[in-house]
Amino acid sequence: MPVTETAGHFTFADWKENPVSPEDAFPRLAHATVVNAFSGGIEAEATVCDYTIAYDTAATGTFAGMELVTGRVDGRSGAFVLEERGRFADDGTVHCTFEVVEGSGTGELAGLRGTGGFTYRHGEAKVPYTFAYEVGRA
Fold first, then answer.
1. 8 A C-beta contact, residue 69 and residue 81
2. Fewest CB atoms less than 10 Å from the CB: which of 75, 117, 119, 130?
3. pLDDT tens digit string along 48-95?
4. Cα(84)–Cα(97) distance, integer angstroms
């Protein structure tokens, strides 16, 4: 199957972060649950996302997480999980790459494989993303 490249935007619909280790010590850990809304190639009104965050300083660190996306990819309906990894800098810039978890696609997205990413800049209301994917047999 040929690889299809698509793009769009997402917005943070909700962000709840809780410390896992003392907040005044570094490095420190936190846990965040996030809801995102996607438009464009990926359409999803409310994803479910869970991150573990490692802070190097009060404003820098790394994160890893999983995001359950239920909606559409270029018109195909179903659900899938994205594994995400990223880094954030003290200027508020966040760089993230993601990959579809193998075997997680359902419905018309069964067999979905793909990778993508985004760069968020502090103050942006909409975050642009890219996604290169193929839908094959599960």
1. yes
2. 75
3. 999 999 999 999 999 999 999 999 999 999 999 999 999 999 999 999
4. 6
